[in-house]
Amino acid sequence: MSRYSNDSEEMSEESTxxxxxxxxxxxxxxxxxxxxxxxxxxTNSYTSEDESDDDATFSSKDMLECNFCYKSLRFVVFExxxxxxxCTSCCSKTNSCVICEPRxxxxxxxxxxxxxxxxxxEVVNYTQIYEHVNSCHFSPCLCPQINCSFQANTTALGxxxxxxxxxxxxxxxxxxxxxxxxxxxxxxTILQGISDGELFVIxxxxxxxxKMLSLYHIGPSRRKPEYVFEMLVLPHxxxxxxxxxxxxxxVNVDDRIYPSSSAIYVSYDYFKDGLLSIKVxxxxxxxxx
Length: 289
Hints:
Helix content is 19%, strand content 28%. It is α+β, with helices and mostly antiparallel strands. The strands form 4 sheets. Strands 1, 2, 3, 4 and 5 form a 5-stranded mixed beta sheet that branches. Strands 9, 10, 11, 14 and 15 form a 5-stranded mixed beta sheet that branches. It has a 4-stranded antiparallel beta sheet with strand order 8-16-12-13, with no helix packed on it.
C-alpha cells in the first residue's frame, strides 16, 4: 500500500512542478514552446549590464542543464545565488531568477577545461570553453610508437618517450641541419627535439614505384602549425646530379593517423642497402634563427 502512496506523491510533486513552471511561463508572458525551443534564437538578447563579478565555477560543462526548461546548456548560462542554473532563453525574459526570488541576480558560469586530467588548470567562461579547448596546449596526443597506447600532453608524452622508447636517431637541435636515415621497411621514423622533448615523425609510405616521405609534429591536430621543415634527400653514385628537396609547414597529428601532406617522392633506387640518407632542418615558426 505504501509503495503506491509513494508513487502517487512523486506524481503529485511532478505535476505540481509542471504547474508551477506553467505559471512562471505565464508571468514571463511567453508560451511554453517558445521558452523551451527558442534557446538558440535568444542567445544574443542579453547585454553586458547583466554580467556580474561573482562567477560560479563547475568542474565539467557536461553536468550543466537548465533547471527550468531542462535543456542542455550550449550557450551563455547563468546561476542565481540559490544555485539555479538557467539558459539564456529562460534568463533573458527577466533580470531575475524565474524559479526562486524575483530579484535574484545572475552571474556567468565558469567551467574547468576538458583537459584538466591532462594538466590544464584553466577555468573559463562557459561561452568560451570550446574556443579554449580547441587551442589548449594540454590536449592529449597518442604516443607515435606503434602498439603503445599512452596518451598525454606533449610535454608528458616527450618524457614518456625518452624513458620507454629508445630513439634510433639522436635528438636534434632546432634551426640546425642534421643527418638522419629512413629504412625502406619502416613506416615511421621518430625524431625528438633535444631542448623541449617535442616528437616528430617521418612517414615512409609506398606509392606505386616510389616511397613518399612526409614529416609531422605530434601535437593537437586542431592547433595551427608551429614548425616548418626542410628535407633534402642525399643522392648516391647513380643519381649524383639529382637532389630531391622539400620545404613546408609541419602538420600536427595527435592519433597516429597521418593525413595527406607535402611529400617527397623517392625512387627505390635512392635506397642503398635498404637505407635512405637525408638532411633535415626543423624550425619553430616565428623564432629567431
